[in-house]
Amino acid sequence: MDNATIAGNFSLLAKLMDIHGENSFKARTYSSAAFNIEKLPAQLSDMTHEMIFSIRGIGESAGQKILEMLGTGKLSVLEEFISQTPPGVIEMLNIKGIGPKKIHTIWKEMGIESIGELLYACNENRLTLYKGFGEKTQQNIKDSIEFYNQHLGQFLFAEAEAIFPQIRSYLGKTFSPVAVQVTGAYRRQSPVIEEMEFVIPEEKNIIKQKFITPQPPELLEENEDSLLYQLKNGLKLRIYSGKGVMEEKLFRTTGSKEFLEAFFKEFPSAKFNSHSKEDENIFSSVNLPFIPPALRESAKIIEKAKTNSLPDLIQPEDIKGLIHSHSNWSDGVNTIEEMANELIKRGFEYMVISDHSRSAFYANGLNEERIREQHRYIDELNSKLNPFRIFKSIECDILNDGSLDYSNDVLSTFDLVISSIHSNLKMTEEKAMARLMRAIENPYTTILGHMTGRLLLSRNGYPVDHKTIIDACAKNYVVIELNAHPVRLDMDWRYIDYALEKAALISINPDAHALDGFDDVRYGVLAAQKGGLFKEQNLSSFSLKQFEEWLAGIKEIKGI
User: Fold this and answer.
1) CATH of domain 3-149
2) Distance between terminal CA atoms of the chain?
3) pTM for the predicted model, two decimal places
4) Topology of the domain comprising 258-310
């Protein structure tokens, strides 16, 4: 074990001690030992015990630990701290701008255990509620996390989409803008992208030559018909040679493995048009309607196409109202009036304001007096902004036992209630299901918010039996949210078709905390398309009149 490794162990130990709130003097002792060891002209492994203990800054405790590392190759106290610390908390040490003491606050006070959760909290403007975290600090942390995430190799669809125009433009200039076709997971609108894939109608060697530039991207892999590069931002770029039948190459690289195997098993004689740069003709050659790329994930969609029962997929312009947004009454940035005026400008008919409930103290949740004040304010705005309407709602915490955060008397004052889990997320499936089922059965639950609590690339959702939850929502007339925030996209699109079978309503909601958060609805629509959602089965596609009638009908059915 060399000096650099020993110094690194001491440095990490000092940081973990600070993160855990241990004695700061002890932490400084190990930090100082690390600093002094890095400056040594000779290796500790070549020194006698007496020489080690005579080094400046190395006391009895640090000296004994050096001997342990030299003798065993490990540091037991460090391993103990590591075992007691969530991996995501340790990973935060890689983020520029947050030291161990801030991480202590983030973990112990905010309850955040991963970088993804921390980024989400920044986007929700939550860090500013804590001492030592001003707006500037919060923005710096957000910027540092985004920079760090770009080098991990996986990107949210929204992140890949932000980069896409630049890549597409470069390839178009290098080859031909008409000939270059996007394919793969990005074309299928997958929520997470590992590779950005394109088909180019050139020989592979010609493509390779075009990438020989003064600062070429790193070539990671070369196959018979493709090249895999890594861009400086960490995104992998796969280029398929489309020399030959372009339509065939585009088709074969767009669909998932399951879809393609099922398609060619069913239609082994499918024909490709050698003159086409798109892939519509293959479907007409086997008397099938065109299957949009977003739906080319499973074999089931082929059966639907055979019976001409493909859904007329929901589109962004089908959204008529913004359901589930937060104002500056809780952890949002804007006033309710500012939000309403922005939506009026965008042509929406209504907004459902759903600030946090009282248990969400970290998000300035509303107590009963503030609820009454907000409702009076909304009444004033509705008189002023008519015919646009603001509905009174709350994102009500589902408590640990499955009960809701307010009494039924308080819940009855809202037009509708979104029930969500925000705390104690580490649960067994049995515990999670018990909480969710009780909340769903509460007659005042109108919408079940972000079903699993997942944060893509950051936090797995708590385990649930999706079909049982969907069955319960259908039975109790509870709408299932598709949270459109690109980090959530929860419920998962894979269960939308089952929800449709059970006639359960979905609602694509932005969970916006600022005006630009309204744009996230589009990502919810893209995810919903993958599940085959059509506008008639999406609550936020209802017109104002339809929404009002639906609310009145649900309350009558539930007897509330």
Assistant:
1) 1.10.150.110
2) 70
3) 0.82
4) Beta Polymerase; domain 3 (3.30.210)
